[in-house]
Amino acid sequence: MKVFSKKIKDLLIPYIKSGKLPLMIAMAPFFLNKDRTNLEIFRERLDYSIHKSLAHTYYNMKVTNDYNSVVRKNFKKEPIWFMWLQGIEKAPALCRANYHYLQRVFSDSVILITADNLFSYIDLPDFIIDKWEKGTISNTHFSDIIRIQLLCTYGGTWIDSTVVVKKEFMHQLPEFQIPQTFKPGRNGNSIPVSNWFIHAPQKNRFIMRVRDLLFTYWSKKNYAMDYFIFHHFMVIVSQEMDGYLDRIPPLDNTLPHYLMLKMRQQPFSKAEMKKYLQHFELMKFTNKIENGVEENNYKLLVELLQY
Fold first, then answer.
1. Sign of dihedral through CA atoms 135, 228, 232, 123?
2. Which of 9, 149, 225, 260 has its CB surrounded by the most CB atoms within 10 Å?
3. How far is Cα of residue 249 from the mean position of the Cα atoms in its chain?
């Protein structure tokens, strides 16, 4: 119940800051103090309201500032971007194991980004750096800023630290790839796209436009209207570009989460875990452990990634 209550609190704070308190008060009696499904419906309604507000302001907005970064590095191979700001030695066990797994599979294509080496790869506007150093922009949202500037500047593949990917999958990627939620699960979902895995060429026009709107947002705001602010801008830009995301090769956002959710519910043997890892080409995990069963499963996952 404590975890559930904390999730409610974490969800509500940005909505209050975004001026959605009247809507929350009107809807709360129907959805709060009930089950998780009702909470998700409650959140979807608020997300839709926030998305409409952002679209009203930013759709087709003219951006005159030049946010491009100087290319500071040259790569023989297409880069695979992996980040842990505090340094990989301070990352959770899963992230460390995954990073070393990616290094074994993809060799020097894997580029580790930390707070110490970040600015040897990209430039960022002074207002973003200042807000990050003051804590106005959290590390989570700073991660969004870094990933999109890296992809604008160099292209390549961004892989979240908790995403495990197979070599065969990476070798079959189209020019642009990003996870999306498709119908029927897409119905009622105002932001049916994720950013935990992004593959894009250098200076992709969609990615650059999302970057420009995201940076413009942070030039004016000192808080994130929503945890998924990046996702809102991807949907807005896709609409500007006549449904850009609808025209790219599909990558399902649901199946990569399957094992993560199962690990929360039931214990796995090493053989079972190994079978799942062999079956899935792209898997999304988490560092947020909720119970003992999940904790033991993650110890097993880390062990298998270290082979």
1. positive
2. 149
3. 19
